Amino acid sequence: MNHARKTDRACAFRGAAVVCLLVLTTLVTVPRPAVADDAQDAQQLVEKARLTFEAFVADKDMGPSVKALLKRAKGVLIYPQVLRAAFIFGASGGSGTFLVHDAKAGAWGGPAFYTIGEASFGLQVGGDASEVVLVALSDRGVASLLSTSTKLGGNVGIAAGPIGVGAEAATANLSADVISYSRSKGVYAGVSLDGAVVATRGALNAAYYGKEATPTEILIQRAVTNPHAASLIQAVSREVGKKN
């Protein structure tokens, strides 16, 4: 009888693991469609990123803190939607756009396209969708995000950004490579991204720019451009250029 219980328990955990893997695969690993579809998906992601960015800076709780950090930001990675599902095993994932600031030129460039994904284990049930903004404050933070894949909290230091009263002043003491903010249904979500993996979406980068291009070629060398990115770049540049 005990052996049967152990077998049933093992099967249940294996089944949960399979469900988790399927969810994570659905959320993060996107199959390669036609190039035209990739290009359309990329442009839609750029527009959604702009709306998400504007919502964050306008938010009464997070806005002052986000805007203060943007004044010294070296990069900003915007995820319009990060989906999270859990049943014992948890999984989360989404796609976003990364912009980098060129200090010499005084201009923002990009975007390059990225995914974010995370798997976890624990007593959890449910699911939600969040908007996420990552602000890179250091050269190390930008360099880490330029790699094919990086683990937040492992390869690069990450901390949650302050919100609410006094948040703007608190940003002066932040020293992490990357500062994270998240919203769910228009309010602060407090999603922990420590351990999440950020990776490039090569198919979207190639479709959006009409040729294969690495994040370094897009964001640092500025070897390729797309005029349709102007609205997103202008939204970030306009906010950074505002005086307090």
Terminal Cα separation, in Å? 70 Å
Domain count: 1
Would you tell me the overall average pLDDT?
81
How many helices? The count is 8
**Helix content estimate:** 25-40%
Coarse morphology = globular
SSE string, helices as H and strands as E: HHHEEHEEHEEEHHH
User: Measured on Cα atoms, how large is the radius of gyration?
Assistant: 19 Å
Structural class: alpha+beta
Described by strand count, sense and barrel closure, the largest sheet is:
7 strands, mixed
Unreliable sequence segments: 3-33
Strand tally is 7
Beta fraction: 25-35%
Q: How do the helices and strands line up, and which of them pair or pack?
A:
Elements lengths: L1 H27 L6 H24 L4 H8 L4 E28 L4 E30 L2 H8 L2 E3 L6 E3 L6 H4 L7 E7 L2 E2 L8 E4 L1 H8 L5 H5 L10 H12 L3
Parallel strand pairs: 4-5
Antiparallel strand pairs: 1-2, 2-5, 2-7, 3-7, 5-6
Helix pairs in contact: 2-3, 2-6, 2-8
Tag the structure with descriptive keywords.
244 residues, alpha+beta, 7-stranded mixed sheet, 32% strand
What does this structure look like?
With 244 residues, the protein is α+β, with helices and mostly antiparallel strands. It has one domain. 39% of the residues lie in helices and 32% in strands. It is built from eight helices and seven strands. The protein has helices spanning 2-28, 35-58, 63-70, 139-146, 167-170, 202-209, 215-219, 230-241; strands spanning 75-102, 107-136, 149-151, 158-160, 178-184, 187-188, 197-200. A hairpin with a 2-residue loop joins strand 5 (178-184) and strand 6. Helix 2 (35-58) crosses helix 3 (63-70), helix 2 crosses helix 6 and helix 2 (35-58) packs parallel to helix 8 (230-241).
